[in-house]
């Protein structure tokens, strides 16, 4: 079975450095199969006969903590669930010079009240709600007015990991290979 692992807060601004080649090797030594990393921000695809995502989350989190001394939140998503989220991204949601589009993946312990507290401005941001993620698109002109810029430092922010739609689409493509 294939999985996607999203690491939070690594290799940002020279902090929480995790070498992807070393991580790949250590994950394979730990028994994960066909480990593939994509860009340096902590996107990993792997296979395993173990279906329990929580076991994988703990294994990868502890591996990163022990090898790199980095305490990164780890989110593991099964292949079909990840593809379902990616398939909910509208085609016109782009991350380019005109617009910014992101997927806010929820950690399992997020509550509906916290999801409802995400400061979305419906007159500025287009949104698609999925039971495991929030997909948001805003024009670059309106980005400074976006409610999402106020999310950093909030309780709900700690229960999200964010990827731009280009990364999510690429991971979906890599899952197909």
The helix/strand series, from N terminus to C terminus, equals EHEEHEHEHEEEH
Secondary-structure-based class equals alpha+beta
Shape: globular
Q: Strand arrangement, largest sheet?
A: 2-3-1-4
Q: Which architecture of the largest domain would the CATH scheme give at its second level?
A: 2-Layer Sandwich
Number of helices: 5
In round numbers, the mean pLDDT is 94
Q: Unreliable runs, pLDDT <50, ≥5 residues?
A: none
Largest sheet: 4 strands, antiparallel
* Secondary structure tally: strands: 8
Helix content: 25-40%
The span between the termini is 13 Å
- Please tell me how large the radius of gyration is: 16 Å
What count of domains describes the coordinates?
Answer: 2
Strand composition percent: 25-35%
In CATH's first tier, which class of the largest domain applies? Alpha Beta
Question: And the CATH topology of the largest domain?
Answer: Alpha-Beta Plaits
Q: What is the CATH H-level superfamily of the largest domain?
A: bacterial protein sp0830 like
């Amino acid at each position: 079975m294939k999985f996607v692992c999203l690491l939070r807060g690594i290799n940002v601004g020279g902090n929480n450095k995790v070498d992807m080649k070393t991580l790949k090797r250590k994950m394979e030594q730990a028994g994960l199969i066909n480990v593939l990393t994509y860009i340096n921000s902590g996107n990993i695809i792997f296979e395993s006969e173990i279906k329990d995502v929580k076991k994988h989350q703990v294994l990868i989190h502890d591996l990163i903590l022990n090898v790199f001394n980095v305490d990164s939140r780890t989110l593991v998503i099964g292949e079909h669930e990840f593809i379902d989220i990616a398939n909910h991204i509208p085609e016109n949601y782009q991350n380019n010079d005109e617009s910014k589009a992101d997927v806010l993946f929820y950690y399992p312990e997020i509550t509906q009240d916290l999801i409802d507290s995400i400061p979305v401005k419906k007159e500025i941001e287009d949104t698609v709600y999925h039971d495991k993620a929030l997909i948001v698109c805003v024009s670059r002109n309106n980005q400074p007015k976006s409610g999402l810029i106020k999310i950093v430092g909030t309780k709900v922010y700690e229960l999200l990991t964010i990827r731009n739609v280009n990364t999510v689409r690429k991971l979906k493509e890599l899952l197909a290979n």
